């Protein structure tokens, strides 16, 4: 498994030899290899991606493009949308305190930005009922989930049918970012996500396709042969080709922007 970052200007996100010599503490390239499987490196997770972005992609970008703001663009995979363990996520909460629910970070609410701890005096997660009581939003008889919410029946006019619905619509919960977005924003950069089902907008997909074609044509289809050919396959896609892929993606965006579908 490979995770890679591309830029339209230079192709693969990496340092040149001089930049690496001047910044030995920074990784030479953003690319990460992982051997999936129980007895190898495991499986690629959101934690792996966040670590890659934080320790490789961002430092390399800031070295190659000093005083610039990066715009990271990702597709809509579950890893890219995963939250930190202490994120404000209503679906993770119980109605009552304690139990198997995570301890969430402190937050603020209301026009005066009132501080609210998400744990009680016993250092237990408060649960939705106590959170709503402290915000003046609890109503007697509320259940954790109503039947419509359980059945995933969406209705924008249904705002107070159950505790989870009320909590999920609170501004601080609505504004919760994924772990990936948070690490990028904390570093002063920006993050967007491509529309679902539109891989033609993401030019790295063409990069993967070109590398896979090279690998199929040059691999002996043994595990050791695959390990040898994959790095060469990735390097076979040169910067000019990557730029062409990027321009093609821009043209698709322009077509959609002008209503041509």
From TrEMBL:
**A GO molecular function for this record?**
nucleic acid binding
- The organism encoding this protein is Paraglomus occultum
PANTHER family from the entry?
Answer: CXC1-LIKE CYSTEINE CLUSTER ASSOCIATED WITH KDZ TRANSPOSASES DOMAIN-CONTAINING PROTEIN, EXPRESSED PROTEIN
Q: What is this protein called?
A: 9157_t:CDS:1
Please name the InterPro entries in this protein's record: RNaseH_sf
């Amino acid at each position: 498994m490979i995770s890679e970052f591309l830029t339209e200007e230079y192709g693969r996100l990496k340092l040149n030899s001089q930049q690496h010599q001047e910044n030995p503490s920074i990784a030479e390239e953003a690319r990460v290899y992982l051997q999936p499987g129980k007895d190898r490196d495991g499986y690629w997770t959101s934690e792996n991606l966040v670590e890659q972005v934080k320790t490789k992609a961002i430092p390399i970008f800031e070295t190659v493009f000093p005083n610039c703001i990066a715009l990271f663009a990702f597709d809509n995979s579950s890893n890219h949308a995963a939250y930190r363990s202490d994120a404000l996520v209503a679906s993770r909460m119980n109605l009552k305190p304690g139990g198997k629910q995570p301890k969430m970070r402190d937050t603020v609410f209301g026009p005066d930005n009132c501080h609210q701890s998400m744990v009680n005096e016993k250092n237990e997660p408060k649960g939705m009922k106590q959170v709503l009581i402290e915000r003046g939003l609890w109503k007697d008889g509320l259940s954790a989930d109503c039947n419509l919410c359980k059945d995933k029946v969406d209705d924008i006019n249904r705002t107070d049918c159950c505790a989870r619905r009320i909590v999920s619509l609170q501004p601080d919960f609505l504004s919760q970012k994924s772990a990936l977005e948070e690490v990028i924003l904390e570093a002063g950069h920006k993050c967007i996500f491509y529309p679902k089902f539109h891989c033609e907008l993401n030019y790295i997909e063409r990069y993967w396709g070109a590398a896979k074609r090279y690998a199929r044509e040059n691999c002996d289809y043994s595990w050791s042969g695959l390990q040898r050919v994959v790095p060469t396959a990735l390097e076979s896609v040169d910067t000019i080709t990557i730029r062409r892929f990027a321009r093609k993606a821009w043209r698709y965006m322009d077509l959609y922007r002008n209503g041509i579908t």
